[in-house]
Amino acid sequence: MRKSIFITLLVLLSISIASVVAFGEGAATSATPITIYMVPKFTGAPYFTACEQGALQAVSELNELGLPVKFYYMGPSTANTEDEIKTITSIIALHPNALLYSANDSQALIPVLKQAMAAGIKVVGFDADVADPSARDLFINQVDFNVLARTLIDLVAQNVGPDAGIAILSADPNAANQNAWIAAMKAYMAQSYPKMNIVTIQYGGDLPGPSYQDAQTIINAYYPKAKAIVAITSVAFPMAAQAVLDAGLAGKIYVVGLATPNDMKKYFQAGVVKQDVLWNPVHLGSLALYAANDLVRGMMINNINGKEYIGGGKLGFYAVGPNNVVLLGKPFIFTAQNV
Ligand code: RAM
Fold first, then answer.
1. What residues form DSSP beta bridges with 230?
2. Residue from 235, 334, 229 nearest 275 by CA
3. For 282, which of 54, 148, 171, 197 could close a Cys bridge (C-beta 3.0–4.6 Å)?
4. Ligand 1 binding pocket includes 97 (Cβ within 6 Å)
5. Predicted confidence (pLDDT) per residue in 150-160, tens digit
6. pTM over 0.90
7. Ligand 1 centroid to 195 CA: how many Å?
8. Is 285 helix (H, G, I), strand (E, B) or coil?
């Protein structure tokens, strides 16, 4: 049954590609390159560089198919909402076909994204959404919020205990992804570990210095009440590990979070981190790029068993869910054995 749906999808995608190639259906023909900009929360992080790499892979696959894409990656070098808005404003003036964003702030970006849509630009979020689904065409969510929350909290329960006190180290207080994970962690704790509790939530703004200082605050003001730090940004996790290491508390405070395995290697080696959780950021960037291409070229697959699909090239087909959210996949747990 699944196989036959897959074959139907494959056939439909090739028809869809063929029609674009042969008849120039939709907004752009194969001969006309389309222009796509990718704006991460910030450029200076291996996590977002991995998203960029994924987008570049998709660009070269599409080029091979005769569907040329001009691709540009730009954004603030460190987390900064105002600069992110300025970047998007300047991109709108260049009239690209599509814009990919990861929002530092789920509210602040809404007007500029609506402006982009009004200018005829297809808008696709990845990694971190905005609070208003009508401000973008699609959002690619890396992992189901509840699945990610469960993964992190189960690790705390296994390593510290079902009654652990937790300090959360987050990003911008208005970041949609971090806030959704926090809400999902609270709900899962209440349901599965009623004695577990969140002692404090600190917001390091996805910036190294403030994240390190927040980790120090947790160590100095909340340990031993908090015996676990859950650092849910790729900037904060290595900073938390560094702060615990510097305080001589490796092995006493359990530090877990989200970051590229490469970023965490030295902390595994130093014995301060035992697990690192992340999805595949390369695939996230690829799927976002494919989604934008599909929208611009009119290659979305509509109404198979009542659903709409995007074609993600080698990644396969992905259904568009409620609020135009597409789910990428599952989180991985990295350990000293596989980093
Ligand atoms: C940071 C960003 C991003 C988040 C990753 C894990 O780099 O906040 O939104 O998904 O960490």
1. 168, 256
2. 334
3. 54
4. no
5. 999 999 999 99
6. yes
7. 28
8. helix
